[in-house]
Structure formats: C-alpha cells, structure tokens
Specification:
eight-stranded mixed β-sheet, five-stranded mixed β-sheet, elongated, disordered N terminus
Length: about 725
C-alpha cells in the first residue's frame, strides 16, 4: 500500500495545472411533454470551476424557432445553482487528480407550444471552450450550441426527447481501455441509435452570450438553425475525435463507448442519440464533452466481480476484471476437497452442494506486484422457471390460462406479472387461470420463482388479437329490380374474409359484391368479417335496401331486312312504365324519341338498342337487329350547264353501294383538269379558277361495287354547255 501511495503522489505532481482552464466542457438540451402542449425544457451546462470562474448565465437564454427558422419565443431561465461533479477516471486503481473541477447547472422551464406544421427547434448558445484542446482549430474561440427538435403531432404525438444517463469520466488513463455506458433513456420507449458525431460550434469571444445580458452591439437573439460544426484539426473529425488505438467508438444499439487513448491531452467528443418511432426519425440529442487523457502508473488490482446471478446450479464460471495482472491463483473455498484451486484466467468449478463459499483471487502471486481480492458466492440448485405461452386469442373472448414449468424444486411465494392491461395484473398461484386483457396487443408475461433465498424470472409473450370492424355502404341509394346493387366494403383491419347476406336468401364471400334483386321490396343486408386470427364482427345497414320496379323496354322496327336503296327504318315504342326513351341506331347516331324514322347510309347489319327509364331513374334495355343489304347504282348525264342558275350546274354521277371511287376529267388534249375520290363532289366546269370553254370533255370513273366486289371502269364524254 505504501508503494501505491508513493506512485499516486508522483502522478498528481506531474499533472500541470495550466492544461485545464476554466471554460465550457459540455452540455445537452432536451424536453419532456407534460400534456396540453406544455413542455419542460431542460438545459444541462458543464464548465470548469477550478480557477477564474466565469459566472453561469443568469438568466440563460433559450430560443425557440419554427421549422422555417422564424423566431417564436425566448425563455429567460434563472440560474438554478450548480453542483460539483465527482472527479472520475477510467482506472479504479487510481485516485483522480484534485486540481480539476467541473460543475453542472441544470436549467429548467415550462413553455406552452401549440402544435404547428414542422414543429419547433430549441437552441442555446455560449462561448467558449478550453484553449488547450488538441483536436480543434483555435479552440479558445470556439463556442457551443445545444439544440433539440419538437416534432409536430403528425410525426410523433406527445413526444419527449431522449436524454443521456451518465456523464463521462473526466479523466482517461493513457493506454487503458475505456468502457463507458453512454446510453440514454427515452420516456416514450422509442428506439434509440447511438453514434459519434460533430458537435456544433457556438458564440465567439466577441459576443460570448446572448439575451438580456448580451454585450452592447451583440445580438439579443440567436440565429436560427442549421448551425456549423466545430472546426476540426486534421486528422480528427466527428467519427475519429481523438487519438486512440483502437479508435474511440460507440455501440449503436447499447451506447457502450470503447477505445484506448494513446496521446495525452484534452479532446472534444460529440455523441448523438437518434430517436426513431416506427422507423421514422423524430429527434437527435447531440451532447459534447471533454476528455482529459493523463498518464497513469501501472499498479495491479485484483478484482472479482460481485455475484449477480444466483441459483445457476453447482457449476460456476468465474470471471475477473483485474488490472495489470499477469498470473493468477484462485481458491474456490470448497471445504470438501483440497483440489479447489486453479491458475487459469477464467476457471470453472463445480461445487458438491449448495452453500456459502468465500472465493479468493491472487494476481501475480509470489511477486512484489501481487494483490488479493475475495468475494462471497452463494451456491443454490439450478433455478430455471419457464412456461409455454398460450395461443393468441381475440380481444372480445380472451381468457388465458398459465402453467408454471421449468427447473425448480417446488417449494418457492410464485409471482406472475401480467402487466397493467390484464385482470388480474398479477397472481401468486402456480397455475393461474382466466386472465383477461383489456386491449389488443403483444404482452410480456413474467414468471418469477423465489426459493432458497434467490429468484429467477422467465418472460414470454402472449398476443391478444384486435377485433375487426365490419362496415359497408351502397354504391347508390336507388335500387331497381334486376339491376345491380353495389355493396362497397369499408371494414378494417385487413386482411379479412367476408360473408354477405343480402336479405333475399342469397349470400356472397367476395369483398365488394354486386347483387341484383329479382323482385321489388325492402331487404335487410348484413356483413360478417373475419380476421386472419379468427376474430369476427358483424354490421348491418340501419335502413333496408329498397328495391323499386324497373320499366319494361320494348320496341318494333320495320323493315328488319331491306336494301340500301330503301334504307328507311321505322321504330315503334312498345315499352311500359317508362318516362324517358332513347334509341341508339348502331351507326353512331341516336334519337331521344323511340317513335321515329331513321335512314341508314351504308349497308350492313345494325344492332339497335333502346334504353328506357322511369321517374325513379330505374332503367331497362331492349335490342333489335336490322340488315341493310348492299346494292349498287351508277347513272351519269352526258351534258351540264354551269351557268350558276342552280339547274344542272354540276357534273357528277349518281352512285350507291360502291367504294374505292375515282372520278377524273380530261380536256381534248388529254390534260387532267379535275380529280376527286369523294362521291359527293362533282365537277363545276372550272379549271385553274376559270370556267372552261364550251366543249366536249372526257371522263374516267372507276369503283368497286359493294355487292359482288367487282372493279368497274367507265370512260365517256360529257358536253359543257355555256
């Protein structure tokens, strides 16, 4: 012990006081949702407090911005006082230096922030950091910014932000591995993700504080986010903030920070905890702090971890976390034998019976660097409770029975914990029954068995399935017999199976059925939905489906078979119960009267459709077919008089039942002076915008007839008379 004390005194003497100035050494800001749009804002600020103490902000100005960066409000939080943190080091064999002081001030205020799109950003800024920091450029001029984001209620209703649990050790021993729990807690149980990150810079010495105590000429309000990061000195950055091998890192799931520093000095480190809900990022709490790496002599310390697991049976696996140990000697304290020793690093020993045993570890035995540690171990028979979770049940009919199983002696006050949603919430029976849960979900049920002075627990999940909600509507409030009624499902939560009853003795199992009622009347429909878990719900419309009479469509056409030379078709309406009638002739034309006449212009087979409706909007349809037989006709005059008197002014043939038509005119010199393929267009006697001379002209007409599909060609003469 004297040797240890001598080395410690030397260690304290070698630490230069000037390396640790009085400045901001870390901080964070977070919030708690108190309900009613009220939030408790918590600002933690850490600073050196050894010499030259600059006062804490009184008040501390915390600024609130909306997501677009507009200033909303400021909180002037009075100084609440501060506490001095215990000086810690990552080596339990050493007493930390006494020439370092760190204070913590916790500012708190409650503010009402109504929900707005995008939420709010909360900011606190200050200057400055220690000028002796090794991983920043101009560290004495680099300030700090701490920020939190309150999301709007569409992202995370009622959210409270995560906050870190422990403050890191102020000192790290050079070359000694760091194992620090840097985890955070979240009041909402959201998923947390940890990572090393870049701290924000803040104010500078010119304007080192904001708010009502700001210096003349300095802004009273902080600038809105985003904020720049601290200026790293290469090769350091947010993910490699200090010299260490292995490098400083943090487990993204547990928050365990590890690494072995390999260079003396002061270092700024930033850690972010990201908060996720249903896979969506809500907020990031960014904390920064200062590590002081010092040189620590290598004193050995024997250490056996305290027993934390009981009733694990007679076979025990021993571990140790000694420091600077090279050789080991274990004595397991078993009085039944002299062979209960081992020189292994992590030995195993099997006791012959339960009892209390003193286990001793000597490290570096037989040397001047030896050290001894003893711990008492309580050995009990194996205690391993378990149970088979019952199968899931639907919420409206759930009642669960549980049976304790696993390894236990059977003489243990059993304790079942079913959770706050259960009735009962707990039981001390070995096999409780008829446990009912009040809401759907997955619930952890824990069985704890206590016997022989120790306890062991086992947890498994039971699932209570939600009851689906049946619901549906009709595509239209008007229903007509022999016309479709559309049933539109709006049940939840899918996937579901369906059983429809239409009230007329028929049913369906599809999601959105279409049903035609064959007769008039009122029909009460219903729907039963069943989830994949077998849970059911039934719904019936409050009003029955009323089915009204439909009109009866009907009409006669004549003739039904005729020639294109006689294409006139007469329709006679014979529908009943209708107030409106429309005819669709099948050639692209229609009529709003069903007693009418229609002329077809082309041969073919045409389906005529009649649509009738009554005053309620119920409709019916009837069809008929007419055949227009193809015929063809060709007639051409031999003279015409284009004098503009409206008589015989145009020279053209009369054609019916032909296609692929061509009509050409030539003068006596064989020059083509007119051409058309339109049977409705004739020659007006003009060529090049002038009326031709009285003369005899040659025509050439070709076409294919519709009846026999034969080619026809006619060449002749026509006289133009002026």
């Amino acid at each position: 012990m004297k040797k240890k004390l001598l080395v410690l005194v030397l260690f304290l003497t070698l630490i230069p006081l000037k390396n640790f100035a009085t400045h901001i050494v870390g901080g964070e800001i977070f919030y708690d949702n108190l309900g009613g749009n009220n939030y408790r804002i918590t600002l933690k600020v850490y600073r050196d407090c050894l010499t030259g103490i600059a006062p804490y902000d009184d008040p501390a100005s915390v600024f609130i911005f909306n997501s677009a960066g507009a200033f909303i409000d400021s909180l002037e939080i009075p100084f609440p006082g501060s506490v001095t943190l215990p000086v810690t080091i990552n080596n339990p064999c050493f007493t930390p230096p006494a020439n370092v002081c760190v204070e913590e001030a916790v500012y708190q205020a409650v503010v009402n922030l109504p929900n707005i799109p995008g939420g709010y950003n909360i900011t606190y800024q200050r200057c400055c950091r220690n000028g002796t920091i090794l991983n920043l450029i101009g560290p004495g001029n680099v300030g700090s910014t701490y920020m939190a984001h309150i999301p709007d209620n569409t992202i995370a209703p009622g959210n409270s932000s995560p906050r870190f649990t422990n403050f890191p050790p102020l000192f790290l021993c050079l070359g000694v591995p760091l194992y620090f729990d840097h985890s955070a807690s979240d009041p909402d149980g959201d998923s947390l993700y940890y990572e090393l990150c870049d701290p924000y810079t803040g104010l500078d010495p010119t304007c080192n504080i904001l708010g009502p105590t700001a210096a003349v000429g300095c802004p009273a309000i902080a600038s809105p986010p985003p904020y720049p990061f601290v200026p790293w000195l290469a090769p350091y950055n947010g993910t490699y903030p200090m010299s260490a091998s292995p490098a400083i890192s943090i487990n993204p799931v547990t928050g365990l920070m590890t690494g072995t520093p390999n260079l003396l000095g002061q270092w700024v480190v930033g850690v972010c905890v990201s908060e996720y809900r249903s896979g969506v990022l809500i907020d990031v709490n960014k904390r920064d702090f200062q590590f002081n790496v010092v040189d620590c002599p290598g004193l050995p310390v024997a250490s056996i971890p305290l027993q934390t697991i009981f009733c694990f049976g007679y076979n025990v696996n021993f571990t140790q976390n000694s420091i600077n140990a090279f050789t080991y000697h274990w004595d397991f304290g078993d009085p039944t034998t002299t062979l209960d020793t081992s020189n292994l690093l992590a030995p195993t020993w099997t006791y012959s019976d339960s009892g209390t045993y003193v286990v001793t570890l000597i490290i570096n035995p037989g040397t001047l660097c030896a050290d001894t540690n003893s711990n008492t171990f309580y050995i009990y028979p194996l205690l391993a409770p378990s149970f088979v979770p019952p199968a899931g049940q639907c919420i409206d009919v759930n009642h669960f029975n549980f049976t304790a199983a696993g390894a236990f002696m059977g003489n243990g006050t059993f304790l079942w914990d079913f959770g706050s949603h259960a009735n009962p919430i707990s039981s001390n029976l070995q096999n409780p029954s008829n446990v009912i849960f009040d809401a759907p979900g997955i619930y952890s049920v824990t069985l704890t068995i206590s016997e022989n002075g120790c306890s062991q627990s086992y947890t498994a999940n039971v699932e209570v399935y939600p009851k689906p909600v049946a619901n549906y509507g009709l595509g239209s409030t008007l229903s007509c017999n022999l016309q479709p009624v559309y049933f539109i499902d709006s049940s939840y939560s899918p996937p579901l199976s369906y059983l429809w009853s239409f009230g007329d003795g028929t049913s369906s199992i599809i999601q959105n059925p279409i049903h035609m009622y064959p007769f008039v009347g009122s029909f009460t429909s219903s729907l039963i939905v069943t989830s994949v878990y077998g849970c059911k719900d039934t719904f019936s419309l409050s009003s029955p489906v009323s089915v009204y009479s439909s009109p009866q469509a009907g009409f006669n056409v004549s003739p039904q078979d005729t020639s294109i030379f006689y294409p006139q078709i007469t329709s006679v309406d014979i529908s009943t119960g209708a107030t409106d009638c429309d005819l669709y002739w099948g050639d692209g034309t229609s009529s709003t009267s069903c007693d009418t006449i229609h002329n077809y212009t082309q041969p073919g087979t045409y389906t005529i459709m009649q649509v009738v409706a009554n005053a309620l909007g119920c409709k019916d349809t009837a069809y008929s077919t007419v055949v227009i037989e193809p015929e063809y006709l060709f007639w051409l005059p031999n003279a015409f008089t284009p004098n503009g008197n409206g008589l015989n002014d145009i020279f053209k043939p009369i054609l019916l039942g032909v296609h692929n038509y061509s009509f050409l005119i030539f003068n006596r010199w064989g020059e083509k002076i007119f051409e058309t393929h339109d049977m409705n267009e004739g020659w007006s006697g003009y060529y090049n915008m002038k009326l031709c001379e009285q003369d005899v002209y040659v025509y050439k007409i070709t076409f294919v007839d519709d009846v026999s599909q034969l080619d026809h060609k006619y060449i002749g003469k026509v006289t133009l008379v002026r």
